[in-house]
Known about the structure:
The protein is an all-beta fold. About 0% of the residues lie in helices and about 20% in strands. Among the domains are: about 340-395, no CATH class; about 555-625; about 630-680, Tumor Necrosis Factor Receptor, subunit A, domain 2 (Ribbon).
Amino acid sequence: MSGQDAPGGLCAQGYYCTGRTKTAKPEDGVTGDLCPRGHFCPAGSAAPSPCPSGEYSNATGQDKCLPCPAGFHCSKGLRRRCPPGFYCPQKTGISFYPCPPGTYNPSYGLSRAERCQQCPAGMFCGEWGLSSPSGPCWPGFFCTSGASVPNPSGATNTSSGGPCPPGHFCPAGTSIPQRCPVGTYSDRCVGEWRSLSCYFCPENTTSYSTNPCPAGFYCPKGTRFATEFPCPRGYYNPDPLSQSLDSCLPCPPGHYCGQEGLTTASGRCDPGWFCISAAWTSQPFDLDNYTSANCLCPATATGGKCTAGFYCPQGSPEPLPCPPGLFCNASGLPVPSGECAAGFYCAGGAAGPKPTDGVTGNVCPVGSYCTAASAAPQLCPAGSFSSLPGRRALSECQPCPSGFYCEAPGLSAPTGECREGFYCDSQQGPLIDVTLYPCPRGFYCPVGTSSSSQHSCPAGTFGARQKLKSLQECQRCPAGKYCEFPGLAAPTGDCAEGFWCRGGARVRNPQDGESGLPCPAGHYCPEGAPVPLQCPPGTWSGREGRRRLQECQPCPGGHFCDSSGQRAPSGQCSPGFYCAGGARSPTPADGLSGAPCPAGHFCPRGSRGPVPCPPGSHAHSHGEQCQPCPGGQFCVSGEAPRPCPQGHFCPQGTALPVACPAGSYNPSLSQTSCLPCPEG
């Protein structure tokens, strides 16, 4: 938004904003981005914060780190399985907890010290953090389980073994002292620190005790000298007085016996190599194929070089598969070569950073992404998709485009087009649930609508409710109203006075004849009138655009207007009546708008008012015209005839009585002539 005088708010949880950020959830990598793996970003973060030791974050977009679970160690924010020889309780960081002397741990993922295995009987575990026993108990001693030294004294650590007792013999690796067989014996010579194996009685000797067969050798019957029969390479014999080759022991796993006549192994197998059993060199090479210790080729193989896809630390009894997320790309590796390449995942045993066999790993499939060191693909989150394989980061998952929605994680394409009645605008955020974006009032949203204002109800219509699906659901502007702009949720206002908005009007004074027109003649239209109002009886209007009742004209004098909505008077007032103005009938009788013509007056058709009869004439009421005053009467203008007085005469049409001339008289009323005076 332009013109802000303060920041719009804090950066969202799981994101960091470096500056000039326009959204709380930036993903452009310049002004900010999703919090990366191994880090956490609380609200308002300017940069990702590394997870502290003992905590991890295996996913992007996290606002806090999780405690490292038991059986794992967490450093630099990443979680890894606890290595052999150690145990890792919850929240283990860069410092592991070694299994104590007397115990060992051959497995990954140990969580408690109690799960470190007791050193097996006949062996000793003399150091901290062992993944296998240190070696067999020394000749002359026996070691019960849990021994931490090869020569237990029997005093300070009576629970883990002791010196071989008289009458018994204890070769290397003895867990229980063995009784000397018939014909042999064993004692403890003064100054000796261990008890030797039982003596035997060779031929042609007078004293067996002076010719014991030395350790590392065996002396069958007829042996001429002590070193005549050495144990061969790959074997050792910690006990003296052995009688046969069977007494020579195969060199233990992870070790080699490099020369004849050994009493103990020469050392541990070299890094990058593994020694199965009876190895006579630190780099055995007689193994053609290896799948497990139970499947060797040839069956007499003693070991071999670690092949690609595996690694062999020093003293390995067998190859270790390359761990998930890592690769081992060469033979003879003591440690994995490195992390799996971004865009690929390494499930375990991978021979290269970009495996494609589908077993040890593969290219990251569509719908997911694989950061460096991925053990498995991570699904693109809901609201996004990935149509291409080999995506390397969450940022390469494509946001669901406007007009579509992506409702589940792991999509290779959008779920579908936005549903009708809703809109899908990618600027609003991840498009997961279309029901969060109902089409607003004033607009309609067909399938695939990409913004709230994409389809507006046109001018002349409005949309009063949400979720309209088509143009047909927009309501036509009602009569008496007008809808001036597109996208209205209600009419703009009332139609102007003097105009009639018939329906669908875009302006307040329509003149197109379809949506509206000026108020028709014979009518008047106040503001917002849904229909023109008729001028009442007694009035008329000959022009369009009348706005008020007062603008209807009273019916003119001499005329009448007998119905509503008249554009002209109905006609002239009837003969014998006069119409003064506003007459509703041709024969008005109310005395205001008109009346019957009064006596002494005449009213021809169309009279505005009664006209007095001229002198010498008269008319009865309702008179259309005047008649001559009858003989014997005289007629004053506008009055009824009166009898002619005595002494006068009134011929027909007399306006005033005429006096009898001299020599005549008239003794009676209502005479038309005078009588001559009698003689005399």
